[in-house]
Amino acid sequence: MDGGIRIDPWSSSQSTDYQRIIDQFGLSSLDSLDLPSPSMLHRRKIVFAHRDLDVILRAKSKENSFGVLTGLMPSGRMHLGHKMVIDQVKWFQDLGADVTIAVADLEAHATRGLSLDECRKNALQEYISNYSAMGLDPEKTSIYFQSERPIVQRIGFTLGKKTNLSEMESIYGFNGETNLAHVQAPLVQVGDIVHPMLDEYGGLRPIVVPVGVDQDPHLRLTRGLTSKSNWFNLKSGKKGGLNISLSIQDDNSQSLGVSPDGKLNRKVRDDLFSKLVEKLTHIGFSDFIKNPKHGTLSIPSATNSDYDDVKRVLLTFERSMGGLGFLQPASTYHKFAVGMTGDKMSSSKPNSTIFLTDELKDIQKKIKSAFSGGKSTIEEHRRYGGNPDVDVAYQYLMYFFEDDDQVLKELNEGYRSGKILAGEMKDICIEKASSWMKSHQEIKDQNSHLINDFLI
Ligand code: TRP
User: Fold this and answer.
1) Which of 107, 197, 222 gets mutated to test ligand 1 (max ligand atoms within 8 A of its CB)?
2) Is residue 183 a contact partner of residue 174, using CB atoms and an 8 Å limit?
């Protein structure tokens, strides 16, 4: 690759050149969207990019249903990095989304070498037990284990027909040495992401996947496979209008009017087009340019704001004929907080992060010895100021513990100007982190009986 970034979801090092990631992978910046009640993660651009989040916001504003799905590998202890994902899930739940969370036990088994039993134990004790304390409503949240929902594996298998090893190589950097369970894991994740759209799991509706940007390869794969599996392509026309074209595939060619000998079956094709026109007439269109022979149909009077409705008609029609009818998932991406030691946060390096089961004295110790952006002497610090951009205590206040933007701004300015010393910033962080953790653990204890409600 010509110096391009490769994102490896399983690697312990990730690029933090977020603008380049946006440009290279075609993400959309979050700046252009007007979010309803943005959380501190949005306000601070920690959640910095998305794909198709506008589809979700339009569904919300039209009071249509939408869902949120994410997943976590139960590979160790839940830490602050994982908390960011759940905070975003909670934000979508407050906007009205139904919530599904995958416990990625198959993935952890394939890529981290944990047994499924260990995964179950970790998931219950270390992860799910925290969710209600983080505000998720157990009545409106469904958590499942990948190994116990065979349908996600089945979808991965079915959609797997639409990709091949070269594509897996170019997305993930897999090679001849890669074990096959590892190759399967992303396909299971594809199944995770799309299965809430099945009728048994809530039916056709937009699904948004909040994740760390390291997970974007899975979204690229899923979006590619869903769009390749669609029976109808939908595109905005160059001169306005919306254009529909048939996507003939092995498993739909007869329904779309191609005979086994490859010839056009005019009767089936004409019939298909009349039905399609009828469905589109139902949602208010009357003017069409049809070319059944070429398999195209244009709606000149449609505008981009009709896109979602037309897409829904097409997917519903596809389903009625036996297709999967999956919409491409939307996604949001968060940046990574620095590890407390100055490099990456990781559950395998206990001093690099705060675990949700840490005791207050551990938290104090970790913050005290965290990487600081202060100068080496007080005199220098007073004179030149510190750098909050690399100061772990400041960064953790910004990412996790200080909700008030004004207070944060004062801390930032005070630090830069040298008024606030590195040790003082740490003390403030310790105080905030401890009070957050105390209340988190209290609510967690009170709600421990709710764990099973999440699993239904
Ligand atoms: N791969 C994710 C991780 O590394 C876990 C995961 C599994 C996931 N299925 C998912 C994330 C579906 C988002 C959506 O933690």
Assistant:
1) 107
2) yes
DSSP code per residue over 119-140 = HHHHIIIIIIHHHTTTT--GGG
The alpha carbon of 43 and the centre of ligand 1 are apart by a number of angstroms equal to 25
Ligand 1 nearest atom to the CA of residue 69, by list position: 14
Using alpha carbons, select from 231, 208, 247 the residue that is nearest to residue 316. Answer: 231
Give, as one character, the DSSP assignment of residue 264: B
Per-residue pLDDT of the chain (456 residues; tens, 9 = 90+): 457 898 999 987 888 899 999 999 999 999 989 999 999 999 999 999 999 999 999 999 999 999 999 999 998 899 999 999 999 999 999 999 999 999 999 999 999 999 999 999 999 999 999 999 999 999 999 999 999 999 999 999 999 999 999 999 999 999 999 999 999 999 999 999 999 999 999 999 999 999 999 999 999 999 999 999 999 999 999 989 999 999 999 999 999 999 999 999 999 999 999 999 999 999 999 999 999 999 999 999 999 999 999 999 999 999 999 999 999 999 999 999 999 998 888 888 899 999 999 999 999 999 999 999 999 999 999 999 999 999 999 999 999 999 999 999 999 999 999 999 999 999 999 999 999 999 999 999 999 999 999 997
Residues 6+ apart with CB under 8 A from 423: 374
The residue type of 181 is A
Structure tokens at 30: 């979050």
Instruction: Identify whether the C-beta of residue 426 lies closer than 8 Å to the C-beta of residue 393.
Output: yes
Pocket of ligand 1 (CB under 6 A): 9, 69-73, 102, 104, 107, 189, 192-193, 209, 211, 215
